[in-house]
């Protein structure tokens, strides 16, 4: 009996460890909070680099021992998480700047040519393809309804699509007034997203009907982060907003200098963190939007930060990947990749994976 209990405990610990070593979608979860289960080392080292044939603005995901990412060379890559060795590649019909979504051993990803693909995550084999009439720049999100996995994906054809993950069949389509650039967030049986029509859209997942529209004042390129029925996002007219989704009103707004915000925010209980074209990372009090600290880089920040334990991980157009102290905003570590870093980091198993404009995918951690 003792041996059996020990075996069960070991299996549970192994499953828990495996589950923690995942970053299966852009921003880590369906609410797009940008918070990792894993911390990162104080002084990470470059563990491996993989070179694609084009700029890598896509953001990686990590699942089942693999890193999945797109490139402007029109390919999707699966890499071994431990070594960076290519497992497979899939050729699409155009540059791939969106992040993939890993779900049920399938990979879902869109291209700038408006095609959305479902791939077998083990082999890279195409399972189905769905065509939109515009560029797909954001990642997909997923939810379960009536026992079936459904996908949400936005397009530059002004539409949000809900597709069946198994077949690619359309369940419903919601049309907005302009481009849908970011990833739709999910909470409370609703999807919430901004668009270049300067509106926060709240849509029922059940049938794609409008629940509410909240004017934001300027077009929204970033994905929206959700927490406690509030949405956090920046827009093109140089403001970062907190919106109460229930009341449909702006709770607070932050404005520093006249530069737009394109990156998504990371949100925890007491603070919200985001970068901007003002070459800075901002940390605000989540309750009132007051600044807690600012960290200055040497280039604009379109990489979306990830909170990993007591640190913030982010890239910058100055070519560096940074870790910054969550509490004090001080630099803990940086690594110069030499070219702009617009890709957002994925963090799992105490490792950082991020793309770069030089065409590389890079993994940082502790050498063992």
CATH class: Mainly Beta
Low-pLDDT stretches are 1-20
Give the tally of β-strands: 32
Q: How far apart are the first and last residues' alpha carbons, in Å?
A: 36 Å
Going across the major beta sheet, what is the strand order?
1-32-31-30
Q: Any idea of the CATH topology?
A: Methylamine Dehydrogenase, Chain H
Textual characterization of the structure:
With 368 residues, the protein is mainly beta. The chain has one domain (22-365): Methylamine Dehydrogenase, Chain H (7 Propeller), CATH 2.130.10. Helices cover 5% and strands 45% of the residues. The chain is built from one helix and 32 strands. It has one helix spanning 2-20, and strands spanning 45-51, 61-63, 66-70, 75-80, 86-91, 101-103, 106-110, 115-120, 126-131, 141-145, 148-154, 159-164, 170-175, 185-187, 190-194, 199-204, 210-215, 225-227, 230-234, 240-244, 249-254, 266-267, 271-276, 280-285, 291-296, 306-308, 311-315, 320-325, 331-336, 346-348, 351-355, 360-365. A four-stranded antiparallel sheet has the order 1-32-31-30, with no helix packed on it. A hairpin with a 4-residue loop joins strand 27 (311-315) and strand 28 (320-325). The radius of gyration is 19 Å and the shape is globular. The two termini are 36 Å apart. Residues 1-20 have low confidence and may be disordered.
């Amino acid at each position: 009996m003792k041996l059996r209990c020990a075996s069960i405990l070991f299996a549970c610990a192994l499953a828990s460890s495996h589950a923690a070593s995942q970053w299966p979608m852009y921003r880590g979860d369906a609410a797009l909070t940008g918070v990792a289960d894993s911390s990162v080392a104080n002084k990470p080292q470059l563990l491996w680099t993989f070179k694609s044939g084009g700029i890598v603005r896509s953001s990686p995901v990590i699942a089942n021992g693999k890193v999945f990412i797109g490139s402007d060379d029109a390919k999707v890559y699966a890499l071994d998480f431990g070594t960076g060795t290519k497992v497979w590649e899939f050729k699409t019909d155009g540059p791939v700047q969106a992040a993939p979504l890993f779900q049920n051993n399938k990979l879902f990803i869109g291209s700038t040519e408006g095609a959305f693909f479902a791939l077998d995550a083990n082999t890279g084999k195409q399972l189905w393809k769905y065509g939109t009439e515009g560029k797909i720049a954001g990642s997909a999100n997923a939810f379960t309804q009536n026992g079936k996995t459904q996908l949400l994906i936005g397009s530059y054809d002004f539409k949000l699509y809900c597709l069946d993950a198994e077949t690619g069949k359309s369940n419903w389509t919601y049309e907005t007034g302009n481009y849908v650039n970011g990833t739709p967030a999910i909470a409370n049986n609703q999807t919430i997203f901004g668009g270049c029509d300067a509106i926060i859209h709240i849509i029922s997942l059940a049938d794609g009907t409008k629940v509410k529209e909240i004017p934001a004042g300027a077009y929204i390129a970033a994905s929206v982060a959700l927490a406690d029925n509030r949405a956090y996002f920046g827009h093109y007219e140089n403001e970062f907003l907190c919106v109460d989704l229930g009341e449909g009103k702006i709770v607070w707004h932050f404005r520093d200098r006249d530069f737009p915000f394109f990156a998504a925010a990371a949100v925890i209980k007491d603070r919200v963190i985001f970068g901007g074209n003002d070459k800075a990372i901002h940390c605000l009090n989540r309750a009132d939007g007051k600044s807690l600290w600012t960290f200055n880089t040497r280039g604009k920040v379109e990489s979306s930060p990830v909170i990993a334990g007591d640190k913030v991980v982010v890239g910058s157009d100055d070519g560096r990947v940074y870790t910054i102290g969550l509490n004090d905003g001080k630099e803990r570590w940086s690594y110069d990749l030499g070219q702009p870093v617009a890709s957002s980091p994925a963090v799992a198993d105490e490792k950082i994976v991020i793309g770069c404009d030089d065409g590389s995918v890079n993994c940082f951690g502790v050498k063992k």
